[in-house]
Amino acid sequence: MDFMILLSANKLSIAIGDLIYKYLYAWVQTWSDNWTTIGAFSVTTIMFTIFLKVLVSPLDIWQKAVMRKNAKKMEAMKPELEKINKQCGSNRELLAQKQREVYKKHKYSMFGSCLPLVITMAVFFIVFAGFNGAVATHNAETYNALRNEYNTVYEKVIDEKDPGKTLTGDAAAAVNAEAVSAGQAAVVELYESKYKESFFWVKNIFAGDNWQSPIMSAAETAKSVSLREDEYNNVMGGLKSKYTGWNGYLILPVLVLLLNVASIFINKPMMQQQQNATVAAPGQTDEQKKAQQSQAKMMQYVMPVMMFVFALFYSAAFTLYMFVNMLFSIILNLTYTIITKKKDDREKDRILSTTYKK
Predict the structure, then answer these.
(1) Which of 63, 81, 201, 353 holds its CA 20 to 30 A away from the CA of 277?
(2) CA 38, 41, 42, 43 torsion-angle sign
(3) E strand intervals along the chain
(4) Can you give the C-alpha Rg of the chain in angstroms?
(5) What is the pLDDT of residue 95?
């Protein structure tokens, strides 16, 4: 069963990678012949993120609605749960039985509150794998095209300068050097006219927004396509000489970190509501519940660091996805919080007015 789930998730991630690269990216490329400051794949990433966010937004809203509903149920259950806690003492089996009875009575579903979050995390990792697949496809297609261009130009120069392959020694070495130089120049021209994908300060969006070179190493490219290192160095030599230094300045990873930290404070009322809505598992004592809540609170601060690591060591394309996704999540959460606060205030006013009239 677990194997089938993993296989299905793998197929889904491949399908998402194909959707991003082979269809959406191919379509966006037709919009213009000149992509400079922001490349076609950057536009593709932003479009895909917005589309996916709209698609999964009902899950986010569902999760928030379930938390609100459970928080209200928790308020109703709290006196009963505290009572049975005192009655059962250290009898865990009886405590679990009584707790289940209370949950059933109030139709409280522990699984229902976790399901949306589980689905959201599953979507994150499937999309992560999908972006990795898209990056691998691009690296393979790019290198194959550049290698073919290099070999074509190289052979053309050799045929022109030494058609009979009769030159030897320094003369042959000079012709070979000229052919290599011409091939590398042709590779640079083809890369910049067709395969270069930048995003403002990021020179190559298929590499990380960090200190790595904009041009992938032979070892990194070999993960996507079969190659010989000596051949790779010849083909990519011109690009390596031209594109030196850092690929980016860590701006996207830092923005992802800051947005994640900001979301902690923005979502604080919602997280408090979630903690209030969390009841003890059957047989769980109040002390164990408090320990579980402390762990959950600690995870709030661990998650931004985890997201920063993802943003730092994977492609800038995936980091851009995380940034746009987090930005829309914050906007959605703020909107939801404002709407529900107004709704709660109206409900309080209604209750107060009713009480006052009585």
Answers:
(1) 353
(2) positive
(3) none
(4) 29
(5) 75
- Give CA–CA dist 344/342, Å, rounded: 5
Provide the residue count of the chain.
358
Angle, CA of 196, 198 and 204, to the nearest 5°: 75
Q: In the block, which residue shows the tokens 């992938």? A: 216
CA-based nearest residue to 115, from 171, 66, 169, 51: 66
pLDDT averaged over 10-residue windows placed end to end, the chain, 358 residues: 50 84 92 86 95 86 77 77 76 77 76 66 86 91 95 94 82 91 96 93 95 92 90 94 94 95 77 55 57 66 88 94 93 84 75 62
Q: Which residues of 151-186 are buried (b: 16+ CB within 10 A; e: fewer)?
A: eebbeebbeeebeeeeeeeeeeeebbeebbebbbeb
**Helix, coil or strand: residue 105:** helix
CA neighbours closer than 13 Å in the CB half-sphere of residue 333: 19
Closest C-alpha to 127, from 333, 329, 314, 334: 314
DSSP 205: T
Q: CA distances (Å), 302 to each of 246, 262, 289, 310, in order?
A: 28, 14, 20, 13
pLDDT at 141: 93
Query: Which pair of structure tokens corresponds to residue 95?
Result: 């405590």
How is the chain split into domains, by residue range?
2-357
Q: Note the pLDDT of residue 292.
A: 61
d(C-alpha 131, C-alpha 250), whole Å? 19
* CB 130, CB 321: distance < 8 Å: no
| Eight-state DSSP code of residue 216 | P
The whole-number pLDDT of residue 355 equals: 60
Q: What is the pLDDT of residue 341?
A: 78
Q: What are phi and psi of 245, to 5 degrees?
A: 80, -165
Provide the token pair at 125.
Answer: 């990792």
CA–CA separation, 119 and 101 (whole Å):
28
Residues 6+ apart with CB under 8 A from 150: 183, 184, 186, 187, 234, 235
